[in-house]
Amino acid sequence: MPATSHWTAALVLTLGLLSSACSGPAASGGDTGDAKAAAEAKKKKKKDERTYDTPDKALSEDEAAMLIGFCEATIDCYRHSCDDGDLVLRFKRVRVKSQWGKDLQKHFTANTLPVIGRRLRGLVKEEKLDHVNAACSEVVARFD
User: Fold this and answer.
1) SS (H, E, C) 33-45
2) CB environment 60-85: b (16+ within 10 A), e (fewer)
3) Which of 71, 123, 140, 142 has its CB 3.0 to 4.6 Å from that of 136, i.e. a possible disulfide?
């Protein structure tokens, strides 16, 4: 941006100083230590997360809420005879935060209601959510 007046010259000078100040040691090849700390925190979080490879990890509150959401979507589609497109939309509306939840959501959106019901029934019984939520209890009762 060329400086055409004394006002724009001051603006260009200020922006130039700010942009060089923002490029600090991390941009010039130095390490601030924040990147290492963030990488370590992310790695630790990954170890604590539940995955298909580590199904024995405890179920978090978010994952329990997600499974309850899947139960409600399944029973709603069971009662209203959803077509495949509507079934996919209902499962995509469930809030998913973990990678395990995303994988499960992908599995559910690619299958039919009976397959989803049987898989969800196993998860609900394993986590004992059938005693916590009415929709999950109904999933256990309906899908044998």
Assistant:
1) CHHHHHHHHHHHH
2) beebebbbbbbbbbbbebbeeebeee
3) 71
pLDDT digits (tens, 9 = 90+) for 20-65: 555 555 555 555 567 777 667 666 555 566 665 566 677 888 889 9
Given CA atoms 140, 122, 132, 68 in this order, what sign does their dihedral have? negative
| Contact between residue 124 and residue 67 where contact means Cβ atoms under 8 Å apart | yes
Whose CA is closest to 123, among 135, 132, 109, 136?
A: 136
Q: pTM above 0.70?
A: no
* Helix, strand, coil percent content, the chain, rounded in steps of 5: 70, 0, 30
CA atoms within 13 A on the CB side of 144: 1
